[in-house]
Specification:
The chain is of the alpha+beta class. It is about 55% helix and about 15% strand. It has a five-stranded mixed β-sheet. Strands 7-9-10-12-11 form a five-stranded mixed β-sheet.
Length: about 475
């Protein structure tokens, strides 16, 4: 049994605590043993004195010595009818050092006398006074040596400690077996499940089933099962996302080639004789260019090489106007949606223009689709301003607002969409792009009267790769 294990430490602590308890029991036990020892010497002395009282003549010296030796005393004095009589006597080797009256000693005094006897290694002569048994006089007084008393007390204490140690070891063994059965076996089972789960965390069959009898262990197993279910679900979702990413990367590769060809033909439209075509050609070229850049960015993401934002200073109003124009053209037939811009013409911000265009487009598109879903007229407003610390952009609408579940999973992919057929990626991408700028995208308001999103981009930004900004490693 190793000490650095639960069972080993439990056994060691059990032995220590039992021995400490025995020490507290040992002191009263030794005091009681000393008292019994002295009382037995008084009784023996009283019995020995009967030989001297049975005859009026003095007893032989050798018989008197034998009686005193059998009683374990040096002298015996009886007080009867107020007469003090020396019944048996022998030579006292030293003066009397102490007198103990057993008729008056309390518990505390008895324990104190026992400790003093053990602590004093010298053989001294003491006087002991007590009451005779069977009312055979007023008192009996003996003198005796302390060496035999101390030896008997030490022998008794050692035997008591040996018995206590045996019981302590037995108790420790029994408790260790109980701990093994009730605690360590379930703990080893939990550890075994954790090891098995670590080898195949994506396998739901490795999730532990809580069945411990102890409430604490059952709570631990329940918490472990909940964590394992969450991890397994996240791994399966990440696996699906990885597969989707590979598919999107392949599609983006082919789509980029197609758009490159379309871009070549779009460039030739600028030479058209139709003025309307010449005016529309730059916008078409810009749209195709953005699509090509998006495909290239998607391919870079598939290679885990998502670039950081390319920062530049540019006026915000023209960019917002492009977003409004694109969404106005995308409005469904019969849709009555009014687009409002509240951006100071001189407001210039420092950001990645293409990424910010994607963010505003996602927010404006979501607002437009929400209003179109109601079949009622509505309005979308894009406003902006600046403070000493950051630039802010507000995108609000008069749509139906977001349901509670959508607000709970607003920026999580495949979870926050409320539109049938939607993926919920638009807000996730927008939030990741803004985080890449060191800023934040937040939902300020969402009621029956509409929703409002706020973008904050700090002036002193620390640009980070988008995958790191999204919390990916």
């Amino acid at each position: 049994m190793r000490v650095n294990t639960i069972s080993g430490r439990f056994a060691a602590l059990t032995i220590i605590f039992v021995m400490l308890a025995e020490l507290f029991i040992l002191l009263p036990a030794l005091a009681s043993f000393r008292l019994d020892y002295l009382e037995s010497r008084l009784e023996r002395a009283q019995i020995a004195s009967l030989a001297g009282l049975a005859t009026d003549e003095s007893i032989a010296d050798d018989l008197e010595s034998e009686l005193l030796r059998n009683a374990g005393v040096l002298n015996v004095v009886l007080r009867r009818s107020d007469i003090r009589q020396l019944v048996l006597s022998s030579r006292i080797p030293a003066p009397v050092a102490q007198t103990f009256d057993l008729r008056e000693d309390g518990v505390a005094q008895t324990i104190d006398d026992a400790l003093r006897t053990l602590a004093n290694p010298r053989n001294e002569v003491i006087r002991v006074i007590g009451a005779p048994v069977n009312q055979a006089g007023q008192l009996i007084e003996i003198t005796m040596e302390t060496a035999p008393l101390r030896a008997a007390m030490i022998d008794y204490g050692l035997r008591l400690l040996a018995v206590s140690a045996a019981f302590s070891i037995l108790t420790a063994i029994l408790l260790n077996l109980a701990v093994q059965r009730l605690v360590l076996v379930p703990i080893r089972r939990v550890i075994s499940h954790m090891v098995s789960y670590a080898e195949a965390p994506e396998d739901p069959r490795q999730i532990i089933t809580p069945d411990a009898r102890l409430a604490e262990l059952r709570d631990a197993e329940t918490a472990l099962a909940t964590m394992q279910k969450t991890v397994t679900s996240s791994l399966r979702q990440k696996e699906r996302m990885a597969q989707l990413g590979q598919a999107v990367a392949k599609i983006s590769h082919d789509l980029r080639n197609i758009l490159t060809t379309a871009q070549i033909f779009a460039d030739r439209l600028e030479d058209s004789g139709d003025p309307k075509v010449r005016r529309a050609a730059p916008k078409l070229v810009n749209s195709i260019t953005r699509a090509v850049n998006l495909c290239e960015t998607t391919l870079a993401f598939g290679k885990a090489e998502e670039p950081a934002p390319t920062l530049s200073r540019f006026p915000l109003a023209p960019l917002a106007a492009e977003v409004v124009e694109a969404e106005s053209l995308a409005c469904g037939e019969g849709a009555q949606i009014e687009f409002l811009l509240d951006i100071p013409p001189a407001l210039t911000i420092r950001a990645d223009r293409d990424q910010l265009y994607r963010v505003l487009t996602n927010l404006a598109r979501n607002a437009r689709q929400a209003i179109e879903g109601t079949g009622k007229p509505g309005a979308i407003e894009i406003g902006a301003g600046e403070t000493d610390n950051d630039w802010w952009i507000r995108v609000g609408d008069t749509g139906p607002g977001l349901p509670e579940r959508a607000r709970e999973y607003l920026f999580k992919p495949f979870s926050g969409s409320v539109r049938k057929g939607g993926t919920g990626l638009g807000l996730t991408i927008a939030a990741d792009l803004i985080r890449g700028h060191g800023g934040r995208l937040e939902l300020v308001r969402s009621t029956d009267e509409g929703s409002e999103f706020m973008i904050h981009i700090p002036r002193d930004m620390v640009v980070m790769p988008l995958r790191q900004a999204a919390g990916l490693r």
